Write a sequence for this structure.
């Protein structure tokens, strides 16, 4: 699985991320919100082409599980051929429950009910994270378009054993095994 968050309508960043989806043979794309719109607090990114971003993602519609970000709206859904307005979803990653959300409603400071060993996957902060905290695996792939905190643009990958954050050149930034706890 490949995790992409905070695309914010940037076509070149999405193209780089999808290159890694193919290279890593990701069967599924988990899109953690803020897909098309750059948002009023963010600068317009270079390569801002939201209609083309939707068109490109639609080619992967049968492989995408997406959740709504704070910049996503019903008009965005009109362009996307995959559901993108759910506030959260649940997945099984290696037999572990993963709560998947954007991060503006649920986040590392306001967690949903999770059991010991569960995984919390989110975006929104644009800060990469892969670490165990209080018996929960906290995972944020960062942003492919507008990274913060001095981090490079990044995405996430689940290889069946670990959740990894990679920069768009494929360098490992952070990693956590889902079985550490």
């Amino acid at each position: 699985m490949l995790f992409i968050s905070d695309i914010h309508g940037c076509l070149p960043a999405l193209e780089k991320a999808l290159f890694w989806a193919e290279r890593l043979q990701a069967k599924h794309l988990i899109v953690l919100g803020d897909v098309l719109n750059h948002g009023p607090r963010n600068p317009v990114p270079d390569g801002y082409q939201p209609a083309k971003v939707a068109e490109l993602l639609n080619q992967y519609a049968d492989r995408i599980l997406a959740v709504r970000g704070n910049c996503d709206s019903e008009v965005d859904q009109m362009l996307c051929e995959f559901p993108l307005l759910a506030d959260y979803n649940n997945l099984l990653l290696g037999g572990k429950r993963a709560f998947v959300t954007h991060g503006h409603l649920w986040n590392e400071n306001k967690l949903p009910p999770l059991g010991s060993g569960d995984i919390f996957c989110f975006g929104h902060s644009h800060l990469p994270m892969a670490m165990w905290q209080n018996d929960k695996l906290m995972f944020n792939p960062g942003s492919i378009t507008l990274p913060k905190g001095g981090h490079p643009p990044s995405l996430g990958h689940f290889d069946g054993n670990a959740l990894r954050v990679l920069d768009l050149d494929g360098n490992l930034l952070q990693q956590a095994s889902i079985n550490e706890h």
